[in-house]
Design a protein that fits this description.
2 copies of one chain form a homodimer. Chain A has about 375 residues and is of the alpha+beta class. Chain A is built from 12 helices and 17 strands. In chain A, about 30% of the residues lie in helices and about 25% in strands. The first copy, chain A, is globular. Chain A starts with a helix and ends with a helix. The relative contact order of chain A is 0.16. β7 of chain A pairs antiparallel with β7 of chain B. Chains A, B: InterPro entries: S-Me-THD-like_C, S-Me-THD_C_sf, S-Me-THD_N, S-Me-THD_N_sf.
Amino acid sequence: MKLDSQDLADLAVGAAFLGTGGGGDPYIGRQMVQRCLDEGLSVDLVDPDEIGDEALVIPTAMMGAPTVLVEKIPSGDEAIASLRQLEQRLGRKATHTMPIEIGGINSTIPLLVGARLGLPVVDADGMGRAFPELQMETFGVYGVPGCPMAVSNEWGDCALIEATDNRMMEWLSRGVAIRMGGAAYIAEYAMSGAEVKRTAVPRTLSLAIQVGRVLREARSDHRNPFEALLSFMPQTLYSYATIIYSGKVADMQRETKNGFSMGRAKIEGFGSYHGLMEIEIQNENLIARLDGEVKAIVPDLICIMDSETAEPITTEALRYGQRVTVISVSVPEIMRTPEALDVFGPACFGLPEPYTKIEDLSA
Amino acid sequence: MKLDSQDLADLAVGAAFLGTGGGGDPYIGRQMVQRCLDEGLSVDLVDPDEIGDEALVIPTAMMGAPTVLVEKIPSGDEAIASLRQLEQRLGRKATHTMPIEIGGINSTIPLLVGARLGLPVVDADGMGRAFPELQMETFGVYGVPGCPMAVSNEWGDCALIEATDNRMMEWLSRGVAIRMGGAAYIAEYAMSGAEVKRTAVPRTLSLAIQVGRVLREARSDHRNPFEALLSFMPQTLYSYATIIYSGKVADMQRETKNGFSMGRAKIEGFGSYHGLMEIEIQNENLIARLDGEVKAIVPDLICIMDSETAEPITTEALRYGQRVTVISVSVPEIMRTPEALDVFGPACFGLPEPYTKIEDLSA
């Protein structure tokens, strides 16, 4: 499937939604891929079932605080440099690239790499959403090592990380990314086609495009985009979606710390919604509590959207006074196993609450 | 030249002297090499003039704050892992290893690597003393790139740095070393035999052994070790040596910051010495001011020694109340060129004072 400009526009919206507030500003990534299309390059999306077991898939991504990205726009060569570094280390050429997460800019970086290098992009990712740390990948959960991993910046500097486990890979590469100015570009979790089929969250790029399309078409048909979204999601692997709150942003705390965007949003209820909702953020929205009671919790999606336009709002764009609607969505079963929750469940973010499925919390 | 246990003991003392307070506790490095000798391994020191132009010399070292090293003893395998990583990257086997600096533990790490791997150790280094940062090498001053560079820890994690210049190599690898716990083991500045002859400070390992021997023999002959040292140095490339102060440590400020041991020692004059000497430290002693007037300045050596025993005192061992004698020594001409001072002159440490040779300051 070749992507066109409309697909890119829809993807930017859908990836911001699936990014649950994180993953960086999708606008920047979209513009970079659009420029490739304008230059006559093409982005070829392939279904994971269509790639050979012997394929060499090298995922590419941005690493760092989304708040930094807004001021430090990439050239697009950084992620390619990391992919090339990994090819050199492995002594093999990549046959495909792939996202590591389906959120914001990281849904678009592999499209840019694919367009520039003529590599097809696998329609799958390793997070099924956005997560703040690199060990938080279904790839790693199901046995694919993240290393060797390459980290590059816009000046041509590169670090090749050979860590003994994926947490140490995250720890060391984060130190490098911070010293590269808070945002860097990576290639990691190089794997075979067979491993992609076994460990990736499938068809999340096309899902993001569909989410964007559903919202756009509802708006242009003067239908309620929230209703359109809630009736679309059950047709996907993300089968349960519900509005958990609606109100006004009453307070927004935010800081860039240890290479992450940390924060807390407070939302005062509006209309039939009463009380104070607090959403804790580490790059992504992690937990939503209403007057202290858990309403949704990681890894299920917590998406803050503009109540008027149904545009997803990333954490760095959240402002005092915005009227917002908070939606939570169930994640695919591959992300809810005990092994998966060991790597990106609530405890991995220092949250004391146990994981409870959004279906159960809403019941 | 095969080193024996007495050579190692003398080297530890001489390297602490040439380390100008930095480079880590030489005791630990000496014990590690001694264990190799006890196991029947040998340390083979070769003169730089004796190695072939086509040799592949891979220097090895510890990187980090000496204050950390005292609590985090290396196994000895870390530097070997870094050397192996670099060999793999270069696709060639090292023929020799070499110190990057002739100070404290970093004069002994290559001996350990050489003994374990059966590699001869080149009798030379890239600092002619100790310096706190990795771009501060005569190797780099005269055109040898520091990268590719490998950084390893005791758990088997490794980062291969491919930076565009030696300052960025220092910056990125320091971030990795900090996240490896404040001390890590490196291989860098891989170079040919011809490059060693052109860029290294020659015969500094044998010099350190001789300095240790001169002090030891003077003590055992009941001669004044300071006088013995001052009459020995003019026979070497470090041709000018003088006592600049003697007194009691009146105050010692010290902190580990950004991966370095930062500090300031205050010494109150004793006997014929009057006033307050302040010595600023970044791992090494950088400048000695007497009542605000410069008495010695980097890159010339500033060595604080015990007034009774003439033992060199490293910065982490400096204590309130110690009676000390401060000696300054001229460095070889290869370290005093404008290109060299651009890389490790006073301005590189944020010091406002221009470089003035110790010969001129003492005149």
